[in-house]
Amino acid sequence: MDDKQLLFALDIGTRSVIGLVGEMQNGTIKLIATDREEHHTRAMLDGQIHDVQEVADVMKTVKERLETTTGKLAKVSVAAAGRALCTLRVSAELETASRGFLTSEDERSLELAAIQTAQAELATSGAVTDPADYYCVGYSVVSFSLDGSRIKSLVGQRGKRSSIEVIATFLPRQVIDSLQSAIQSVGLEMDTLTLEPIAAINVLIPSTMRHLNLVLVDVGAGTSDVAITRDGSVIAYGMVPLAGDEITEAISQHFLLDFNVAEAVKRQLGSKNKKISFTDVLGMEQKLPAKDIIDAMMSKVSELAQGIATEILALNAEQPQAVLLVGGGALTPLLPESLAAALNIPPARVAIRRPDAIQGITGIPAKFCTPDSVTPLGILKLAGGHTLNFINIIVNERPIRLFNLNRLTAADALLAAGIDIRALRGRPGMGITISVNDETRFIAGGHGTPGEIERNGETCKLTDPLSNRDTLCVTLGADGTSPAPMLSEIVPSPESLTLTVDGKSYLIEPKVTVNGKAVPPDTVLYDRDQICVSKSLTLSEALQQLQLDPEPAEYTYTVNGAERSYKVWPKFTINESLAAPESQLKSGDSVEVVKLPPPTLAEILGINGTYENTSVNVTFNGAPCTIPIQSHSIQVDGQVTEASEPAKPGSTINFAITSDRQALISDVLLAADFDPRTLPVTSKFAILLNGQPTEYTAIVKNGDSVEIKTA
After folding, report:
1. How many angstroms separate the CA atoms of 531 and 517, rounded?
2. DSSP state, residue 422
3. DSSP characters over 277-336
4. In 186-289, which ranges are continuous DSSP H helix?
5. CATH architecture for segment(s) 1-139+165-204+359-384
6. 231: alpha, beta or left? (left if phi > 0; alpha if psi -120 to 50)
7. 3-state secondary structure of 126
């Protein structure tokens, strides 16, 4: 019939593969075929496929047995265990003012927009090493809002702005790819994918129960998956890497049993058998009370319960109202009691649930009313609704699986491949900062070169849509280069100066330095270089550049038996005017170097006619008067000579200083050139020292006052 649709679900578990085929009839799924097959070896561990071929063989067996009833099966819905689960809580908004009454398609568009937001957040959050290696395996709607008010459903509503909050769950590519490989090897195509706890919670906890703070724990063989509801929605998903296999391992280790034998023993513990028989690896047959076996594994049961409780409290932040256990591992003896104790809630609040009656699914056989049937029934139920499916894209020769969000673009593919879209533009090169005569200048870097995207060999834009099996080739933009200017490009060569030195013309280039060193114009500049351009030129700098710096005339003498040298530096004139070495020059100036004659004896001996600090200073008749109190004698080559005479180079000089003596009034009169004969013959006079009469032989000191009084 046209209104019938076959749905095929596989629960590929660590211990077994369960296959269900249902027929969609008027919104309800009717089970028409079921099958179960256990793995022959430990081909799966902790929910991860380790032996793809072994798992594929079991899947093929289940598929072929189902096809004897249903006919050819081409597409399958599956679920992944929550191993290495990454969960993100994100929001999305949609302008709906012009849409009229909202439809289920509008609601679906908002859900898919939230998933895209989660993908973008994962790609940029740094939470995982390579975002392209993670797939979204399911999502749950936390809430819808319309114009800021929380609402159960948007369908049939009208408003200006709609928003949604979802929990999106991601798993590593390795987990999904191994599932995909096993599915393809048996001639099937993955139709939809979800997460095991999402599948289970959709069966056992309908939306009408989600206002309660409930925890669903799917205890499988390899992992225990956790889902939590509160305030009308699913608020968190989690995973514990402990499950039924740890209990089996404990029994195997304690009683030396093959793993499969230990698994069979564990399953009998829930029966009414008081004693259980088995044969260990030594071939010894044993028959033990079930209580003894339970006691041997209780430490592992407590460890499992504690691990699940820790995850629940971490996600829920408080004790839940109740815990629902599903999965084959839920039948582990004393697990509900141990979990209740670990959570500190009443034992009656932890219960094992079976799919006795599921809304939307009919025809469930009695053999499938077991805890481990909840998840496969949930996968089948989700297969009939809006669940995620994939399209395959190749990005730079790397296969990428994208969720078919109806309007996928090249930008989505780049995002999923972990390519930073900003890298397509090409960043400008780093600029440099230099200083010219303490003035800061910035030189910008070169512009980046834009990248290119090709889809199936043709240029495309980020906004162009994608189709299944499209191939993208992405060339990233090239960053601009940093500038490397030459000195001549930044500082034009200053004008040269023309000088005449001692009648000869010269051309002088002004000095330019980089970081204190003179450099040629083709010097390459770097960031933070300090450039100094001389705006003026001194006489000393000009002579140094021309290498005309005059040397002093050096004369040697023998003074009091010791050889002594004396240097006489030349003097300079600029345009016939005496100039100092630091005098500024201008173009066209004429410089002369004036050589001086040999020094005098006074210059060589450093006496300059008198000695410093060898005299007494007084006032005579109100005028300053200096009285020498030392004397010296100079002989040049044996001849007495005055200090003011030139010193013949190479001559022998003997220089002597008389001992110190005290200054007298007579010395003051002599130093002041006082001549008594200038006084009238008939006049009488008196000599006053500091206002008191004194004699010619009286001693004077610095600062004394000497006067001549006439009568």
Report:
1. 9
2. G
3. EEE-TTS-EEEEEHHHHHHHHHHHHHHHHHHHHHHHHHHHSS--SEEEEESGGGGSTTHH
4. 196-204, 244-255, 259-268
5. 2-Layer Sandwich (3.30)
6. left
7. coil
The stretches of 31-103 forming alpha helices (DSSP H) are 52-70
Domain 392-475 has CATH 3.10.20.30: yes
Which pLDDT score, from 0 to 100, does residue 311 have?
A: 93
Q: Are strands 86-95 and 161-172 parallel, antiparallel or unpaired?
A: antiparallel
Query: Helix-strand-coil percent breakdown of the chain, rounded to 5?
Result: 25, 35, 35
Helix (H) or strand (E) holding 667: helix 665-671
Closest CA to 171 of 135, 125, 196, 195: 135
Bridge partner list, 633: 656
Residue 616 near residue 627 (C-beta atoms within 8 A): yes
Three-state secondary-structure class, residue 491 = coil
Nearest residue to 653 (alpha-carbon basis) of 606, 610, 615, 612: 606
**pTM above 0.90?**
no
Asked if residues 642 and 634 have their Cβ atoms less than 8 Å apart, the reply is: yes
pLDDT digits (tens, 9 = 90+) for 271-312: 676 789 999 999 999 999 989 999 999 999 999 999 999 999
Backbone angle region of 426, left / alpha / beta, with phi > 0 → left and psi within -120 to 50 → alpha:
left
How does pLDDT run across 4-25, given as a tens digit for each residue? 678 999 988 877 899 999 998 8
Of the candidates 513, 517, 536, 524, the one whose C-alpha atom is nearest the C-alpha of residue 436 is 513
CA distance 453 to 472: 7
DSSP 424: G
Per-residue model confidence (pLDDT) at position 610: 46
Tokens at 686, concatenated? 């008196």
| Chain center to CA of 135 | 26
**Predicted confidence (pLDDT) per residue in 601-639, tens digit:** 877 787 754 444 477 889 998 899 988 777 677 888 888
**pLDDT digit string (tens) for 87-140?**
888 888 888 877 788 887 778 778 877 877 887 788 777 767 776 677 776 677
Task: State the Cα–Cα distance between residues 153 and 650, nearest whole angstrom.
Answer: 119
DSSP-derived pairing of the beta strands 584-585 and 623-628:
unpaired
Q: If one looks up domain 603-710 in CATH, what number appears?
A: 3.10.20
Nearest to 653 by CA among 552, 559, 513: 559
Q: What is residue 615's three-state secondary structure?
A: strand
| Sequence letter at residue 100 | G
Which DSSP letter does residue 483 get? Answer: P
Report the alpha-carbon distance of residue 133 to residue 602 in Å, rounded.
97
| SS3 assignment for 132-177 | HHEEEEEEEEEEEEECCEEECCCCCCCCCEEEEEEEEEEEEHHHHH
pLDDT reported for residue 554: 80
Q: Which fold, 207-357? A: Nucleotidyltransferase; domain 5 (3.30.420)
Structure token pair of residue 597: 């004659």
CA nearest 263: which of 14, 72, 79?
A: 14
Domain boundaries, the chain: 1-139+165-204+359-384, 207-357, 392-475, 603-710
Within 534-586, strands assigned E span: 537-538, 553-559, 562-568, 571-574, 577-579, 584-585
Fold agreement between 1-139+165-204+359-384 and 603-710: no
